[in-house]
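Lecture notes, unit on protein representations.

Consider one protein chain, 277 amino acids long.
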Amino acid sequence: MKLGYVTICWGTTAHFGMGIVGHPVGVTNIKDLVYVTNGSIPAAARDLAQAGYQGFEMFDGDLLSYADRQAELRALLAETGLQIAGVYTGANLIYPDILPEELWKIDRVCALAAEFGCENLVVGAGARRSTGTVDADYDLLGAGLDAVMDVAAQHGLAAHYHPHLTTMVESAAELDKIMARSKINFCPDIAHLAAAGADPVQAVRKYADRITYIHLKDYAPDPFAFLPLGRGTVDIAGVVAVLDAHGYSGWVTIELDIYDGPAIEGAQISKAYLEAL
């Protein structure tokens, strides 16, 4: 297994809160709706290299910010010795009128990611309608995820679906619905699954043959918090045991949405916990 970390925590402060924002142009232009971190990608990469990680996952907006200055990102990767483990993007995928715009954005992201040797696209998707989710929405989402998979494959990337709180795939039953309707790989976020009432170990075991990239983080229900590994209630050891049993050899990427302290400290805590396993 190769160990990576998501750059979201760099930029997390008392003022900003969670270390990620959306691009404001995306409010009126779907094709520009991307995630952007508050913090510094170079600072994150240097900290992660110091902490002993092998790579990092970045958000689509952060990657696209290097579109016209690729030499800077190449120099950073060379300096730190890190790889780009994955790129994260998001989309609604249930509204046919805007689907081409969303796929255009994802195509652009994948094309640039491939330039840097990135092999994994992670997509969080599935809009919840104001009128409520209907079963047909899962058919639309499934078809949209298959389209994302095809776009990623054209650039040599494997696409992975990431269930997430606030989307239409939170619970175990909702996960089953979409996994039956799409061929896309599964990127579990074990803390989000636990927060939605699912059993992360059971979910990973059930879909182990579709997991080639995974997000690990811990979670505590009261007070609600996402935490470094070993600091919450998620059965991390059980998840890792399932991965071992299935001969998993891909990236294990730790994603911590927010950390109340230096970001490198959270990364070091999680790495130490995994090493202790």
